Amino acid sequence: MLLQKPTTRRKFLLGSLLALPLSDLVFKGITAAQAAEMAAPELADYKPIFFSAEEWQFILAATDRLIPAGGNGKAPGALETNVPIFIDQQLHSEEFGSEIYLQGPFNVSAPATMGYQIPFRPQQMYQTGIRLVNQWTQSTYQKPFHALTQQEKDDVLTKVNKNEVDFAASGEANMKASQFFSQLLSDTKHGYLADPMYGGNKGMKAWIAIGFPGARASFTEWVKQHNVPYPLGPVSVKGERA
Can you give the pTM of this predicted structure? Predict the structure, then answer.
């Protein structure tokens, strides 16, 4: 006889909520956005599909320092909005970065105005960058990046951004530390502010915090009203309302 795995209270409630029509959700005082947030993966339970376990620990720690939670009910951070899940799912996509020209020649020292100068797709940038940063912190602090204190993490990310963590000295001549940092920071921002359908911005919390209307069909009457709080909550592409 097979024993059925117990259903958690959260999963039972979620299943009940998603089976209800929107009108019933509103009647029960639960918005579609709140139901969607409950349906989104819990970061603590999520199993990465692209990153290794060690890489995942780095991503959790790094994104948390790039967009930390505001605290005291203020703006949510990267972890509260599932930014790591967004990055993991984007990198898992075969199409992500497939448009990048990789035939060279490349000049790692060229100014940013010269465009993309790295012979890697984003997936390779992350795997290489994480490995080299962890290698540097192990040599400097005798710990991987995720095990550092918050201040140490901030110091390391600052050094990475300023190329004070020398990738070339570790044998990687095709990518500077600052280029890895730029990719990580850009993807963290995208995960924080993108529509929830892409895995981040859980519950549209980031949009709520900045007063962004989301995918509302029309809000032109508010565009020129500066310093006036937008009174309506955001709407996702799927029509979820906060």
Answer: 0.81
